[in-house]
């Protein structure tokens, strides 16, 4: 849910007189490859006489039936919420609450053709819990409840996603923000889209921070021209044309501080529906791509599916004689309440179509359209500045230093040593932000293409010389030996 919706529900459910209260809302689904998320769409406040508050609060049938009718008309599912004023943490159901929700399960399903969603708010620490009712026998509990705004607030179901133990390698990390923050941050499922100079660095540092589940998505392989930026990639990686996600996976494994890290390799394109389905399984996404089409896809997911997207990039400018003129890097987090890439001028809608057609790499089109050839300059020393800026956004989003959350979009100008805070605001007719919490009803931007599949398949069938195969075998043997000795 958005932070704005959460605040409105919390204000209703937590009463000044300390009594429980009830509320009805609606939801839509956001369906990933492995995970299904319910996005709270609207709040239906009770009218006079539609609920009883008597220490324990209760719904009336009139209230639930009215809300079910509104949900059906909108094509949404039904949510029944209640509060436990003095409680904290993930809440289980009392016998009375179980009976109430199971009783209304049939009403919700009959009216909306979707399962009932039950939610509880603990008033002491404003922690949420949630469960789906697929039938009347027992609920299916959610793994977490997430509130997305300039801060990401998560209530975890410890029974489904246990708190990872703190390791000796995390001592200084935990001392920076405490065990509670570490317990929440380490459980986040974080996806890095793009495993080049910036993404590779980000992925390794997430692993070193103690995150248990980190995914990397990229379908390209390592080339010799990547080695001046992909710190950790080797000449052997380039000679073998290894996939960037394989290289990232190995480096993350070496950097990991968690007892056991789940590294997920995704050799797919985010511009393909398959890539989108994978991305919807994650809690936070790093956008480390530099093309309009993939950035448009991620820009859409940030709002339609309430997955914070941390985006940034670098642009270097040179004089005709080759000397550096300037360098600019930027970082921003896409969440409700913050402007999207289009609104801050980092995404041009027309370029998305051109990118789909491959025209942004076509010299003839670029010349005929009087466009500038895309800049490809990058420097390892400055790529680190971009990854640092993105990771600082992640810390602000998840650890909330100063309780302020993520800042306005930032831009650093190297030539003048100036850090600028963008004054851009959301456009009133922004198609991305106006699609907030659409979930599976989002306007599709991704399309099925075979070009990336051909790239992946070609890499898998490439024949290497005996010399390279022996070098790869020696490398694997050395790694296994080191792992056995260290473990």
UniProtKB/TrEMBL annotation:
Q: Which residues form the signal peptide?
A: none
Q: Which InterPro entries match?
A: ThiF/MoeB/HesA, ThiF_NAD_FAD-bd, Ubiquitin-activating_enz
For this UniProt entry, the molecular function terms from Gene Ontology, in alphabetical order, are: nucleotidyltransferase activity
Q: Which SUPFAM superfamilies match?
A: Activating enzymes of the ubiquitin-like proteins (SSF69572)
Work out whether the entry's keyword set contains Aminoacyl-tRNA synthetase.
no
Kindly state which keywords UniProt assigns to this record, in alphabetical order. Answer: Nucleotidyltransferase, Transferase
Q: Where is the THIF-type NAD/FAD binding fold domain?
A: 173-323
Keyword Transferase annotated: yes
* A Pfam family it matches: ThiF
* PANTHER family, alphabetized: SLL6053 PROTEIN, UBIQUITIN-ACTIVATING ENZYME E1
Q: Please state what the protein is called.
A: ThiF family adenylyltransferase
Species this protein is from = Microbacterium flavum
